Amino acid sequence: MRKSNYDKFPVTMINGNIMQGWSDIRSVLEGKIKESRILAVDCYTGVYEDELVGELTKISAQIILVRDLYKPEDMLIQMTERFMTTDVLFGYVTNLCLTDYFDMEKLEATRKKIAELDIPVIIIGTGAALVAPEATLVYADMARWEIQQRFRRHEVKALGIDNREEPVSLQYKRGYFNDWRICDHYKDTLFTKVDFWLDTHIAGHPKMIDRETFFCGIEKTASGPFRVVPFFDPAPWGGQWMKDVCDLERTMPNYAWCFDCVPEENSLLLAFGDEKVEIPSIDLIFAYPRQLLGDAVYGRFGDEFPIRFDFLDTIEGGNLSLQVHPLTEYIQQKFGMHYTQDESYYILDAKEGATVYLGLKDNIKPEEMLDELEKSQRTGEFEVEKYVGIYPAKKHDHFLIPAGTVHCSRRNSMV
Q: 56, 63 in Cβ contact below 8 A?
């Protein structure tokens, strides 16, 4: 077996202060609440909110839950229905913001109550900073990849809605088209206001850093080459190449893809000696978009990182799904997204006979192809090579795939 040199846990080494475990974290927060009386513990959707509540109620204070100030669940479902659509997979990007979720009468009554109280108050939940802008602010952040694992275990609720029993695909769709957009836009307003960043990616083992330490890590990462924490996942077509080369769990049936750098999904590790704090790598783009992306890219894409670096492994596996990414006009009209996905396949490795499907053949009949695709939804069979071009693929080949081009890496290639 070869020795892998693939680093699955890359870090940014920094100096700073780190608090570990609920006991130490509560001790620090108790000191802060004595100074300011009001503590707001805001969080990204997908955080184990019950863990926050259970641990923070050990501090002597009046507890206020933000979720109690939201509009009723049936109203929120109706409010977000147009973004969820009736399609199994595809939704429409929301134009809602977090304030739309609040019952404004409840919010104003709670603000008045907080002002009248003369005892410590702790506000917990997504939007805590909106309830008490003057509070000491703690933000419990969460990377989307970990949220997806929690979806699969049916452990976490959506924003204001208990959808834990829904299929994972619908939980993901609500996150992708609605909840994560709302939480990202809201979090983007908080970077200069957050006093402490709370890492609860590992349940029961929280870590916390202060604002200065957070920005030390973000600034150092943005100032030079960096990597984020990759994650790996199996699929029906997955292969065996990454198991060896990336030193992955051998008992898994396959690994299909690795998100090696997709900042909206991955984590960033800040390391203090042997100790590490995990934050979503998208925070890097939100905090320093112009410095990281440059003026031209920032002017075109804003605070989004417009490149995805993936590994796609079909060696000793099956064919990737045959797919096409829509043109920009279509994706804007149908899904409310501002840009589409051009791709390229760089072939890291390939076995003899590896090929890719790429583009439609000349002189096909589009109506006939569409009819066959519709039938394949029922039969599971589609005669691909009747309609789609096929090309040999060998190690170090590079295929450019503009949006609108049908494509698929076939068995025995590592993209």
A: yes
